[in-house]
Amino acid sequence: MERKPELILEAIARSPDLTQRGVRGVIAEAAFVQSVVLPLTSQGWKDQTPSGDHPFDFQLVDGTSPVKVQVKMQRREKGVPKLWKSDKRFFVVETQKTRSGTDSSGKSTRPYRFNEFDILAVSLQASSGDWSRFRFTVANWLLPRPKDATLIEVFQPVPSAANTDWCDSFLTAVDWFRQKRKNRIRNPG
C-alpha cells in the first residue's frame, strides 16, 4: 500500500484546477500562520479568529483593535502567475469567494464588500516559489467594481515590488489601515 503523503499528493496532482487552487489557498493560510501570525505573538498579538464562515480568514488582535485579514493567492493561468494586462510589473489576485450562491434578494454571494475585512494578504508563492512571502494592502484601497462601488473588483493588480500601495510588512499595512487614510491602489491600465 502506498504511504499516505504520496497518496494525498497524487490525488491533488490528478485533481482539476479548481481543487488545486483550493489546496493552494489552504496552504497559503497555513503559511500565513507560520510566517506572520506566530511571529506576531511575541509582540503581544493574538489570533482570535471566530469559528464559522466569515468574509475574512483571520482576526488578529493587539492592544489597540482587531484586524481582519483575508489571505489570497496570486492568480495562475496555465500554471504560471497571471500578469495584469501583460504588464510584467504587476500580477493579479482574484478577490472573490470560491463558493457561489445567491442571497434572499437574488444577489450573488461571491463578491466581497468593502469593510468585510481590513487587510488583504496576497501569497507571492506563485511568482517567488516561497510560501512565506506575502504582499499586503488595506482592503478599502482596493479597486471597486465599476457597476457597484460597494463591491470589491474581482481582479486586483499586485505589484511585483512593494510600493506606496502595497508592502511586504503586515505591521506596515496595519499602520496604513489604522491611519484611516483614503487611498486607492494604482490601476496600471
Descriptive tags:
alpha+beta; 189 residues; 5-stranded mixed β-sheet; globular; 26% helix
Helix fraction by DSSP (H/I, runs of at least 4):
25-40%
Number of strands: 12
Low-confidence segments? none
Q: How would a crystallographer describe the biggest sheet?
A: 5 strands, mixed
Q: Short description, anyone?
A:
Helices cover 26% and strands 26% of the residues.
Description:
- This protein has 189 residues and is of the alpha+beta class.
- It has 4 helices and 12 strands; from the N terminus they run H-H-E-E-E-E-E-E-E-E-H-E-E-E-E-H.
- The chain has one domain.
- The strands form 4 sheets. Strands 1-2-3-8-9 form a 5-stranded mixed beta sheet, with helices on one face. A 3-stranded antiparallel beta sheet has the order 6-7-12, with no helix packed on it. A two-stranded antiparallel ribbon has the order 4-5.
- Strand 2 and strand 3 form a beta hairpin.
- The radius of gyration is 17 Å and the shape is globular.
- The mean pLDDT is 90.
